[in-house]
Amino acid sequence: VKILTSIYLRLKFNYLIRTKVNLYTKKSEFIQTKMHVDNTIPHMVGLYSVNTNNGYTLFEDGTKVESIENQMVIFDGSRKHCSVAQTDTNVRVNININFQ
Length: 100
What we know:
It is a single chain. This protein is 9% helix and 46% strand. The chain is built from one helix and seven strands; from the N terminus they run αβββββββ.
């Protein structure tokens, strides 16, 4: 709760759509989920990395966002993206916040 409060206070939003925590377990090879958008209504995404690892978020245009502890990337929710699981740490944890 403390970490979420800190994040929420720094984001400027009128409406919180969803917050979820993703936990990916270590894989023997990089495994990519399907490309997707989190919601069909116009929104923004705040993706906060809890820990550093070699997993990443991949966008449809090929842009990669590495998982670096205490880093947040904010992007337009209409951008298709996917997660790629890590191979170097036991877990990859990120917090996904959808807001308007």
